[in-house]
Design goal:
Structural class: mainly beta
Strand content: over 45%
Distance between the termini: 42 Å
Number of strands: 14
Largest sheet: 4 strands, antiparallel
Length: 174
């Protein structure tokens, strides 16, 4: 298959979290049961999260798909001070119509929430390329959005621990 590890994070206990996406019916990353593609066909990419303890023993694995049911990618991961795992990339809400995507997962691999953001240009590619959390558990996602009249613009989004967008800044060139 076409399986990609795209992010890694380490918590204060030395546990290692890896994320990525896979484009196959199922994927095996260790001793736990196979991860299965959400649509069952392997015709779209889904994302995965895997937790290893400090000794490299697999603890859990999870797979998620975006609301659109098309391709999903992760580019960056971050672990906050509460042990939650954030990742950013994009989810397609239609063929070749990706939106910025931020997902929050708890320490057991369960999705707590996810948000998708798009620029004003329908059909433009919007993507999170990096993600960071501060000491107050607010998150920051950097990337780009396509907007009417300006094209591809750099974007910086601040969100709180509940997934509410606090602000969304865009940077355009001339």
């Amino acid at each position: 298959g076409f399986d990609i590890g795209s992010g890694v994070g380490i918590d204060s206990s030395g546990n290692v979290y890896v994320s990525g996406n896979f484009f196959s019916i199922s994927a095996t990353f260790g001793v736990l049961p196979n991860l299965n593609n959400a649509d069952g066909s392997g015709s779209t990419r889904d994302i995965f999260f895997i937790k290893y303890d400090a000794a490299g023993n697999e603890q859990w694995q999870s797979v998620f798909t975006g609301a659109g049911g098309f391709n999903d990618y992760l580019n960056a991961v971050e672990i906050n001070t509460s042990g939650h795992y954030y990742a950013g990339g994009f989810t397609e809400n239609g063929f070749n119509n990706p939106d910025m995507w931020i997902i929050k997962v708890d320490g057991n691999g369960s999705k707590l929430w996810d948000i998708a953001l798009q620029g004003t240009l329908v059909g433009g590619k919007d993507e999170v390329t990096d993600i960071y959390t501060d000491n107050f558990n607010n998150g920051y996602a950097a990337g780009y959005q396509y907007n009417n009249g300006t094209g591809q613009d750099a974007a910086l989004i601040k969100f709180n621990s509940s997934g509410s967008i606090l602000w969304n800044k865009k940077f355009t060139g001339s």
